[in-house]
Amino acid sequence: MAAVYKSLSKSAKKVEDTENDNNTTTNGGFRKNKQRVLILSSRGVTYRHRHLLNDLAAMLPHGRKDVKFDSKSKLYQLNELAELYNCNNVMFFEARKGKDLYMWFSKVPNGPTVKFHAQNLHTMEELHFTGNCLKGSRPLLSFDLAFEQEPHYRVIKEVFLQMFGVPQGARKSKPFIDHVMSFSIADGKIWVRNYEIREVEKAKGEKDSEGNDIVPESDKSSSKKRKGAPNAELKDTDVSLVEIGPRFVLTPIIIQEGAFGGPIIYENKRFISPNQVRSELRKAKATRHNARVEQVKERLGKLETLTAQAKKEKDVLDTRELFA
């Protein structure tokens, strides 16, 4: 019987391995959500960009952080790099002029690719929020209702789901859900926040929403035990959200059909490049400077005309004229 049990267990193990290779579960036949994210940056990132990358890498247990990518023009090479590391998602931080940060979210190898301009970056170290969560825990993803109103927002939502959604049973992940990632849309921008789900047991003497006194759980359990009840009631807890960090704002620029290439299926016409904003500010400063220079020239011209008129109109009774 032992030999029969060993042979049956080996065959069952082989069947389970083949099903895992085909990305199917043993119960129900559904495909597993296998996601791996390659996280890397370009040359020229600042300390704030680097700390944001480290914070996001710590929040994604199914992510792999790689060294800096040298090229900024040949981004299609990231597809080969993702295939080399067995990743099907790429999060690329592109720094420009040591100031601007552009974030690329791509689905490898078939796309799509979304390019964002990141603003208002605040990392965990500088915020000092009281929220906390277990490293490697799975987050709840909360999306604004506006994500369902426009087609390009629906594409962005799906990319975020596959990028930030930690699959069940992923490598280095914990089987707990103790924080929420919020994605809200306001003024054409996507505001990203991270909150801890904090549950606090209500103290004795507090009242619920209906105005009734709350009985502590210890009293309930003791009364239940005295009455011989088989099951105890659930605990009365206050659920609140406490921000953890990081926080940043994303402005969508373009959506490409392929992975770091292909035709552009969406372009944000309202997006203004930070280079153009800086040039407009420089032009405004230049116009103010030119106006001040013109005012100085006019004042000097008036002084010259006044002195010339004074020289022409000589007084006969002037002492310099009388005793010349």
From TrEMBL:
What's the domain of life for this entry? Eukaryota
Q: Which residues form a coiled coil?
A: 286-313
**Which parts of this chain are annotated as the region Disordered?**
1-30, 202-232
Q: Where in the cell is it found?
A: Nucleus, Nucleolus
Task: Describe the family membership recorded for this protein in Swiss-Prot or TrEMBL.
Answer: Belongs to the BRX1 family.
PANTHER family from the xrefs?
RIBOSOME BIOGENESIS PROTEIN BRIX (PTHR13634), RIBOSOME BIOGENESIS PROTEIN BRX1 HOMOLOG (PTHR13634:SF0)
Protein's recorded name: Brix domain-containing protein
* Organism lineage string: Eukaryota, Fungi, Dikarya, Ascomycota, Pezizomycotina
